[in-house]
Design goal:
Elements: E1 7-12, H1 16-27, E2 32-38, H2 41-51, E3 55-59, H3 67-77, E4 84-89, H4 95-103, E5 107-110, H5 115-127, H6 134-144, H7 161-171, H8 176-183, H9 187-201, H10 206-216
Parallel strand pairs: 1-2, 1-3, 3-4, 4-5
Helix pairs in contact: 2-3, 3-4, 7-9, 7-10, 8-9, 9-10
């Protein structure tokens, strides 16, 4: 039986002790490997472009450029197979977190998270089949999308009934397997619907599609 490929990770945090602690936890897992570190946002951009990791753990607040701008620059420079970026923050309601998600981050992780949660987060985001902490994402979206709902987005009319259902289920945080079970279809069919939702909403991943749905009023975060 062939071994499962390791998830390659870059750590970006201006505190050496934080990076060391994260490395110890992640490298203890057979399927995870830290391949690089960065102490500033600018360094993170350079290291990620050089090493092309699968996942980046990105501190929100760093010298030179912050994690939001670093996320934007990484994703703009690596349009072919970009890494999945998880922003690391002290407070889950930090406005920087939502800005980072809008910039293209796939999710966020609290610095006080337990080791098991860290490992689970990296594995989950590398598979790209579910949202990270959907309830917290809904809370952030609700906080940042107050006011009257905008006009329906142009992409809404392009969604089939099944695709619209998939998008709403994605917004609840269900995995592909859970969506398939809920809808009574096969995993391959669900995967096809998810791909169509991403293409029609112009989203890079599930998180971006759900944010687009929230901000357009197509799905209510409340």
């Amino acid at each position: 039986m062939s071994e499962q490929p390791q998830v390659r990770i870059v750590l970006a945090d201006d505190e050496r002790m934080v990076r060391t602690a994260l490395r110890v936890i992640l490298d203890a897992e057979d399927d995870l490997r830290v391949v690089g570190e960065a102490a500033t946002g600018a360094e993170a951009v350079s290291v990620v472009r050089e090493l092309r990791p699968d996942v980046v753990l990105m501190d929100v607040r760093m010298p030179e450029i912050d994690g939001i701008r670093a996320t934007e620059q990484i994703l703009a420079g690596l349009t072919d197979g970009p890494p999945r970026i998880v922003v690391v923050t002290t407070f889950e309601n930090d406005s920087y977190v939502y800005d980072a998600l809008r910039a293209g981050a796939a999710g966020f992780l609290l610095k006080r998270a337990a080791a098991e949660e860290l490992v689970q987060t990296v594995r989950l985001v590398s598979r790209s089949d579910s949202l990270l902490f959907p309830s917290a994402l809904r809370s952030l979206a609700a906080e940042h999308t107050r006011g009257p709902a905008p006009s329906p987005p142009a992409w809404a009319a392009r969604l089939t009934e099944r695709e619209a259902q998939v998008l709403r289920l994605m917004a609840t945080g269900l995995t592909n397997a859970e969506i398939a079970g809920r809808m009574g279809v096969g995993p391959a069919t669900t995967k096809t619907h998810v791909a169509a939702v991403l293409a029609k909403t112009g989203a890079r991943d599930r998180t971006q599609a759900v944010i687009a749905a929230y901000e357009s009023g197509y799905v209510s975060p409340r």
